[in-house]
DNA sequence: GGGCTCACG
DNA sequence: GACGTACGTGAGCCCG
């Protein structure tokens, strides 16, 4: 709706508020770094109260805060002394000016300042425009200069006295109506602004004269008629000064503004912006108030915060009044009374940092050794449970060390707290601890994870391991694990660590975790990634716990048979290769192979890398093979088999859990900077599929008896996202119409019909489509398609010509990265790109990564959202149907389902996946999911 | 432990 | 004008 009748515009004089706040409040400073924030605080408070009270009959429909722009204005040109006697702003107020603008924006209120103009003129222009449009206007200020604007629906509101001023109010003050206020001011002058006026004439006299003569010009022309000599002389002798004064006080109603009144419509504050700002400023009371009002968790500001924006990392790390780490102060909990006291302390606060110590790294197999807790920086304990003496008693087992509570008692005592929805459990990589606890019958919930917080905050800046985070943010290096357990052959397990040392190490970890949490929690708001953390990171972790615990059944016999076959084939190839080489050598050694190829056989194309070794990668071997050389071709075959055998058919067998008969991968939620996960121990995200021989490995991944595996994967999700973010209408339409997207691209580019297209042309278009997602280069495309570089560049040029939006997207993304040092997904995930400023070859790298990250990252966010919603969606299934989510492979999810329920489950899962972006993001392209069913992964995919 | 190679999306 | 480039991962192997 266009601004006009029925609307009510509030214009807030920001500068006036700043000064008032500054003088009214004691000189507050931000606790962490001493930044003066008194005026910002007062200003923010005022704005907060304003917003809370903006209801009822006088409520604004449109609002703006207007600020003075520092520097000279046109009035200084008319009269150099204008406001010249004003002392400069106090030193501790100056840094607060930009912060008040930030505060205004944080409250989602329009914030206006224009170079060369005072706030008064902007207010005048806006109020005239609004009045002419037939709307109501309220100018919120105590500056009497603004009274000339009153009338015709315009009123003033003096916030000091909370008094509305209409035309009558103006007359009370100036003795004339609003339209003559300027005349009175011109005569009376204004000492505050150094406006001269006519000497000896004040407001009273001025009003009297104006009322008598009608207006200023008439008065001046008839000045000689004035009876009182003093007044007469003053007017006659100071005509010029009076006219200048009039020009100074006359507000400019005709400024050219580059925005419309419509754009000032009242907005609901964005909670994240607001809370982020208040947290950054460390305004505890307002933070609480905002949190209450918007029904969110108040971010915890640490008592001794680690510094805010602007400070260097080193300064941030050096917590000025932080408690030092005292490893001797940690408590050894070995009585039930002590344990209960800790639980009481936890309930007093509502949160606790938890860490588990175990006999190894595989959470599906290791034993729990002890638990550490921390409720406050420096206040941590360790509860040893299963530390062993290492004395190999008569029965072949080690005896438990003294000073430990029984396992069952500890678990049973802690369980209610660990499962209590009102107690936040805090961990570093809590997925691991949650998996351990799950095996002891405890479902830890809810929990925060400092590793995930760091990931939401710092992806692309640094890694998120505890030692690194502690060193960086707490300026404290924890005891290295190596120091405790040793390394290599003589490494011991944690249960053999001497109790005294174990207490220090374990409790320290909980202490570090709690302190990191105290720093990261408010920082999430400041960096505006709270939503990312709370909707994409925290809720995914328990889902992964379940998936990893589910595992997938792997048939050892299938793998072992394949291993044997591969071994035989490899032996045959090895003999053949050595025959061709004319000597025995280690085929698996790139170095030896290089020497055979390029020194002994003197084949062309030998290129040495930086280590001085010949390169023998596939592309090199392929080139040689295509020239008809037999040996490199055989080496390629051998390598393929070697890879399949060592990485898959052999290695996978060692990962079959003896208890479950299944393979339990571990997902690293922070594995890729883009928001993708990675999988390890074993990596189940790179099981072969591209060759027939490799693909058969998937036959070893099987469904349990009476069940099937189903696989659902997003179709072309990254290209769809590209079409959306780059706003390519033809691509979007092709997706809506369900066309073959690569054929359509080819058709656009080369002007050939989609029907009966040459597969070669389509292949090239497909390569370009993918290239675009990766930040295409002529070189890369040329290499991929094995065509001359010039030709590849020609393709790219034509592509950009046909789809100009793509080039625009790329340029805009790179520009954004350069400006902000990060890029974002559609869901707000930040991927930091510090390298973007680099010079040299890294610059190209960084550019392409910046282009790719929003696309890959958005796709990653979408599947995460689907995964997070999956447990609830599957919970609606009938009682007798079990459907378990087992694996994620970037755009694919694998489930294990009762074989008679596959269709039902597919329907549900598909629905969740296809609508996962909503309601947060509405894509302009449909998202489609393909499904497959089988007894094993090869069949299902 | 770094570099190379290669498996996946 | 030369250089060096597709994006994101994890793992096994060789070799110093």
Automatic annotation (TrEMBL):
In terms of superkingdom, the source organism counts as Bacteria
Record domain DNA-directed DNA polymerase family A palm: where: 694-901
What molecular function does GO assign, one term? DNA-directed DNA polymerase activity
Catalysed conversion reaction: DNA(n) + a 2'-deoxyribonucleoside 5'-triphosphate = DNA(n+1) + diphosphate
- An example Pfam family from this entry, by short name, is 5_3_exonuc
Q: Which CDD domains match?
A: DNA_pol_A_pol_I_C, DNA_polA_I_Ecoli_like_exo, H3TH_53EXO, PIN_53EXO
Q: Name one GO biological process term.
A: DNA-templated DNA replication
All copies of domain 5'-3' exonuclease, residue ranges:
7-267
Give all residue intervals belonging to the 3'-5' exonuclease domain: 330-525
Q: Which UniProt keywords apply?
A: DNA damage, DNA repair, DNA replication, DNA-binding, DNA-directed DNA polymerase, Exonuclease, Hydrolase, Nuclease, Nucleotidyltransferase, Transferase
State its Enzyme Commission number(s): 2.7.7.7
Quaternary structure note: Single-chain monomer with multiple functions.
Described by its record, this protein's role is as follows: In addition to polymerase activity, this DNA polymerase exhibits 3'-5' and 5'-3' exonuclease activity.
Which NCBIfam families would you find in this protein's record? pola, PRK05755.1
Q: What does the sequence similarity comment in the record state about its family?
A: Belongs to the DNA polymerase type-A family.
PANTHER family (UniProt xref): DNA POLYMERASE I (PTHR10133), DNA POLYMERASE NU (PTHR10133:SF27)
**Under which name does UniProt file this protein?**
DNA polymerase I
Q: Source species, please? A: Pacificibacter marinus
What gene does the UniProt entry assign to this protein? polA
